[in-house]
Fold this sequence. Notes:
Elements: H1 3-25, E1 30-36, H2 37-45, E2 51-52, H3 65-76, E3 84-88, E4 94-98, H4 100-110, H5 135-143, E5 145-151, H6 157-169, H7 176-183, H8 188-196, H9 200-206, H10 210-214, H11 217-231, H12 239-252, H13 256-276, H14 291-307, H15 315-322, H16 325-330, H17 339-356
Parallel strand pairs: 2-4, 3-5
Antiparallel strand pairs: 1-5, 3-4
Helix pairs in contact: 2-4, 9-13, 11-12, 11-14, 13-14, 14-17
Amino acid sequence: MSDKQLTFFDEDKKIEIQKQIENLQRELDYDTRDYPISYLVDLYKDEDETVFAPKYQRQELLWSLYYKSRFIESLILDYPIPLIFLADTLDGKLEIVDGLQRISTLSEFLRNNFELSGLKKLDSLNNNAFEDLPDAEKRRLKSKSLRIIVLKKSTNNETKRELFDRLNTSSLRANTSEVRLGREFDNDLMKLIRNLATNEDFIESTNLSEGRLNRKDDIELISRFFAYSHSLDNYKGKVVNFIDEFINEEGKNWSTEKELEYTDEFVKTMKFVNENFDRGFQKEDRNQTPNVRFEALSVGVNLALKENEDLIIDSSTVTKLLSSDDFESWTTTDAANNRSKVYSRIEGVRDFLLHESK
Length: 358
């Protein structure tokens, strides 16, 4: 093909690309508005449902009380929040494209349907509803404006769903472990956890994939190990809140003695598991370490070693434990974080090892 032909082909292709871009750009037309919170909530709850959620939104996946409280706290503290996306419809209503959880949370809070809980900064607001706020703060919250992107009524349904999908999947959101690591980066216990993640016995016995390591699952596992080992009686059934509170409180009351104690028990537990369990914490039929299995074995072993530092088991004991119906029940994912199930798997492994030890 000659240079002249190549040039002609390239120009043709560029024209085709440009046309496609312009055509698709025309599908998304919008304007920007600022709505006071009270006005937005009134539109969401009026009889005509002027602001409404379409069927493709996952209304059943509502925020927990913790996330609702954090959102309200962010607004009161004037932290920036993400844009809310609505779409104008032919009948003049506004369809929620992205922001359902924020709008519904505001509606609930302004109607005193929940009390704030688990706040770390504005902890004086814990156990308080909207009506309990100082009058000035109630007025400020209701009049605070939220930035709204409103798609024009000419936007078709396919484009709305495409936008919803992109807003919710185009970025990999930080998981709880990543968020905690960032928030507690200077916490002394978190510093120790980061150091212990390099322990060779831990690395070998968990065999975490590169993907899980990138998402800080190693940090999550060690955080759970210490929280359940030292504060099991305080577990109420909410894993995220439980781990967050434990790390935060322990970090405030840290000492050299605690660092030595925590390091010693972690090193001994990982060494014990790596030496006595052929596959470490991994399942027999796959190279993976589920959280519930790690919790059961690591914390159970740790608590057993605390009662009997000379604990000795053999391969037949390990096989008996891992193949038992009880262990299968303790480590199934169904209702895995139920309070009684957490207690059962940890104390079950501890008691089994102490009873079967030589």
